[in-house]
Design goal:
70% helix, elongated
């Protein structure tokens, strides 16, 4: 009976990791897509001279907010993956 419980726990961990990996990737795709779209929608903001946060201040700034939410979601999912892996900070 104990082996069945362990097997179920392992399956659950793998499922959570798969979902977190997918969420991480999706969040990054959203961010990069929005950022690319913003470059085309606002060509007056030269990316070499302006920070990406400035896209929030222009018309349609809500789109960049969605991009930042995607980025934050990706970072949170990546943090969850690292935390669940048991990898600790490097000391030395």
């Amino acid at each position: 009976m104990d082996g069945g419980i362990q097997h179920h726990a392992n399956q659950r961990r793998e499922a959570i990791s798969a979902v977190a990996s997918s969420v991480c990737l999706a969040g990054l795709v959203v961010f990069v897509t929005v950022l690319g779209a913003e470059h085309f929608l606002h060509p007056g903001l030269d990316p070499r001279e302006h920070r990406i946060s400035e896209y929030v201040s222009v018309s349609g700034g809500w789109l960049m907010v969605i991009g930042f939410v995607g980025w934050a979601t990706a970072l949170a999912a990546a943090a969850l993956l690292v935390w669940r892996s048991g990898v600790g900070p490097a000391v030395g």
